[in-house]
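RECORD TYPE: inverse folding
INPUT: structure tokens
STRUCTURE:
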């Protein structure tokens, strides 16, 4: 199984870039990982901004991929639950598992219907921080699946 994470906008803060690189390296010990940034849309109305950004995200989602959208209205899950979900995808022979992080206004309704919605928290975080939190949770999931001591 190949893991792909797509997001809108560049990672701007050096600490975000460092953390993304750190957790990406850890995840790559367990499976191939690709990180894809797409350009954010500026100066358009919110709905048009969502539509354009989702079109850009769409270009990075392989056919037949399982798509998980990080969305504040999504299902909340604990770390073992996320690990179990990833394990089920892996065991079912899913070729591509894609996690998407939208821009400032989230995803278009059409795009939201394409995937499973997952919320990291009921709290609001910056999109920069969500990248780090997601990568850390994915790494944690792989350590759970491999019975390693990181998660306790």
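DESIGNED SEQUENCE:
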């Amino acid at each position: 199984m190949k893991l792909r994470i797509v997001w809108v906008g560049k990672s701007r803060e050096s600490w975000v870039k460092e953390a993304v690189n750190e957790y990406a390296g850890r995840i790559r010990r367990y499976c191939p990982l690709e990180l894809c940034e797409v350009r954010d849309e500026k100066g358009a109305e919110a709905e048009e901004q969502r539509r354009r950004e989702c079109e850009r995200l769409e270009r990075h989602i392989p056919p037949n991929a399982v798509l998980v959208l990080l969305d504040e209205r999504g299902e909340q899950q604990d770390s073992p639950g996320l690990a179990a979900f990833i394990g089920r995808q892996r065991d079912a022979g899913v070729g591509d598992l894609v996690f998407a992080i939208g821009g400032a206004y989230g995803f278009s309704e059409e795009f939201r219907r394409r995937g499973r919605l997952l919320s990291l928290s009921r709290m609001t975080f910056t999109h920069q921080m969500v990248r780090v939190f997601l990568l850390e949770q994915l790494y944690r999931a792989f350590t759970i699946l491999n019975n390693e001591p990181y998660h306790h």
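NOTES: The domain at 2-145 is CATH 3.40.1280.10 (Alpha/beta knot).
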